[in-house]
Design goal:
Layout lengths: L1 H7 L13 H15 L4 H9 L10 E5 L5 H13 L5 E7 L2 H11 L13 E7 L16 E7 L2 H4 L6 H16 L2 E11 L3 H14 L7 E4 L19 E6 L2 H10 L4 E11 L15 E4 L4 E3 L2 E8 L2 E8 H6 L12 E3 L5 E2 L6 E4 L6 E4 L2
The structure holds S-adenosylmethionine.
């Protein structure tokens, strides 16, 4: 378990060794699959929150780098819980035949592992090696209502040695895939919450944002033209969803020295239509996303926010917080707020804005 985790984090150059390794397959099946399948729920829930999920009664799905079917299981369990569709028709592509055969068994009717309620899935698998510069040749025909790339974009780009080319090829792949989206289709890219992978995804996003043609950036961003996290090498945008692992998984995590709580990942949701998570706000220009944990310091509490004007730090003085309800401290990473210009004073502090006494940001969505 620990070895597989290290291959996915510190020893990424060894990631390819997990294919065909029976121990790694068992670790993926017993721990990583039941934990990671919930990662796609957040992006799906954001789409649902503004009525931007595809409307097909049985959406056609492309799952790239599908592996054991983790992301498809997340999608079908979300679909069952939300009642958003009757079932899914899934085309799954991976280079690992063995993983795809496990996926077939997991999704055979009734779909999903015991205890997880899933919408029915009609599955076709393709054992294909996806390669930069030859993306189109290995992709089954669309159009697709939903395209998912669960924790695999970085692996698809792993053979490209330098970051600028990796970003360019990632952009080319996502643009190519967006041509296969149905006219209300969505694409969800989930990546690890690691600095290099999350920054690459943000750099790809910056090359896609603002165009008139699809794909349109739906989330996590709420209108920022360039990702403020790319300004400093040490920053990266990621989610850290409050979540306690179920007891059986927590035990395995504890024994392997892995986190027992929180679901971490970075992601990008693209839409065939010009839709945005900022639609949560009555005035979309007022939407802000919390992109840090609360940052306490002497006499104040701060939060990094991202919005149409870029990155800002919202600050509340402790003396104001004692008088007012303690609004800032329970706003976790990923919360979407509406912040009107008269809620803040940004006249003195450049990129820092003080939340005015008596004002509180309106919470539009918590992760
Ligand atoms: C970390 S796993 C993710 C599996 C699953 N999507 C999930 O969400 O957990 C990455 C998957 O991408 C596949 N993969 C990596 N590079 C690939 C390539 N060039 N072509 C096809 N599949 C690839 C691997 O075999 C592996 O199953």
């Amino acid at each position: 378990m620990r070895q597989v985790s290290e291959r996915y984090t510190r020893r990424r150059q060894e990631v390819a060794l997990t294919a065909g390794d029976p121990g790694a397959l068992a670790a993926r099946l017993r721990f990583f699959l039941p934990r990671d399948l919930f990662k796609v729920w957040g992006p799906l829930d954001e789409l649902a929150a503004v009525g931007a999920l595809p409307t097909a009664t049985t959406p056609k799905v492309l799952d790239l780098g599908a592996g054991l079917g983790t992301t498809t299981l997340g999608l079908s369990s979300f679909t069952a819980a939300a009642g958003s569709a009757q079932g899914l028709v899934v085309h799954a592509v991976d280079r690992d035949r063995q993983a795809l055969s496990v996926m077939k068994r997991l999704l055979a009717p009734p779909a999903g592992p015991p205890g997880l309620s899933c919408a029915p899935v009609t599955l076709t698998t393709y054992t294909n090696l996806l390669e930069p510069a030859h993306w189109s040749e290995s992709l089954p025909d669309g159009p697709y209502d939903i395209i998912v790339l669960g924790l695999c974009l970085n692996e698809l780009l792993a053979t490209i040695p330098d970051v600028p080319r990796r970003v360019a090829e990632g952009e080319a792949l996502l643009r190519r895939l967006s041509e296969s989206l149905s006219d209300d289709g969505v694409m969800i890219v989930i990546e690890p919450a690691l600095r290099e992978q999350a920054r690459t995804l943000a750099a790809i996003r910056d090359r896609l944002v603002g165009g008139r043609a699809p794909p349109h950036v739906f989330a996590p961003c709420v209108g920022c033209p360039t990702c403020p996290m790319l300004a400093r090498q040490r920053d990266w945008c990621h989610e850290d969803i409050p979540w306690e692992l179920p007891a059986a998984l927590a035990e395995i995590a504890g024994a392997a020295g892995l986190r027992r709580a929180g679901l971490t990942y970075s992601y990008l949701t693209l839409h065939a239509r010009p839709r945005s998570l900022a639609e949560l706000a009555v005035v979309p220009a007022h939407a802000r996303r919390v992109v840090s944990a609360p940052l306490p310091s002497k006499g104040k509490l701060e939060l990094e926010l991202c919005g149409p004007e870029g990155g800002t730090r919202m600050m509340a003085l402790n003396r104001d917080r004692r008088r007012d309800p303690d609004v800032l401290s329970d706003l976790g990473r990923g919360t979407v707020l509406a912040l009107a210009p008269d809620d803040i004073d940004d006249s003195k502090r450049g990129a820092r804005a003080r939340l005015l006494p008596g004002r509180s940001p309106r919470v539009l969505r918590r992760p």
